[in-house]
Amino acid sequence: MKWINRNDSEANFEDRRGRSNKKAAVGGIGVIVIVVIALLLGQNPFQAVDMVNRVAPGQSEELTDPSRANENEELKVFTLGVFNSANDVWTEIFRTQLRHNYVNPTLVTFTDETVSECGGASAAVGPFYCPADEKMYIDLNFFHQLKSDFGAKGDLAMAYVTAHEVGHHVQKLLGVIDQVNQYRGQISETEQNRLNVKLELQADFLAGVWVYHAQKMNMILLEPGDLESAISATTAVGDDTIQKKSMGYSVPDSFTHGTAEQRTYWFRKGMQTGDISQGDTFNDPGLN
Ligand SMILES: [Zn+2]
User: Fold this and answer.
1) CA–CA separation, 229 vs 223, rounded Å?
2) How far, in Å, from the CA of 32 to the mean position of ligand 1?
3) What is the pLDDT of residues 172-221, one digit of tens each?
């Protein structure tokens, strides 16, 4: 994959590389200092403590490691380029086909661990999208793992990962995530997993739709081997592959992302048609 036009804007980018949040206990010296200051100022100390708690709910203390602030810089530039490209593509599709306003999500890069409105995140979780704060979180070291542990090499393999997460944002804006969440707690775990698989397969399809339009809008140029590279990533992160790798067998009922074959099918369909109306993974018998 080659860039024809790369958008390097950092307007929707939050760089937390080299920073990590360590939870500190509430109370102790900090609170005593506040109480003393409040008394000196003639304020109600309890009100002051309450205010502090409201301002810093997690009482997290930020640790910085400047030596890691620019870690994986090349991967950051690439990922930000894909992220911006995906937002530009979706802005256009929303405007022309959905008559709906597209709101950009935020890309957050971090090292080792960070916090999100969906809870704490560690590198072990892998890249994810949090619907509550509309941010995509990624520890860029994941891409080294994608190559070494899953054998997914090449630029389109990495681009697919980012485009998939932006696909979840599209689902959030279109209300698909809310619809799936409505059923949570009302249906069996097996049914819930089945719905989650459809949600994931649709994000794969939307990643494919990005590839189609990013080429058409002169942002990227595909090269020989790119499709195979992306397919190796969809295959590598298929639940059956991961489960076989970690447990030696696969358990269909607990699949939450879909099999390698399903993920490849939907990604390829999006990439070949570029047509959002063909991505109804919930009702399309396809390979489901
Ligand atoms: Zn996903």
Assistant:
1) 10
2) 45
3) 999 999 998 888 889 988 888 888 889 889 999 999 999 999 999 999 99
CA 203–ligand 1 middle distance (angstroms) = 6
Q: How many angstroms is it from 41 CA to the middle of ligand 1?
A: 51
Residue 68 CA to ligand 1 centre (angstroms): 27
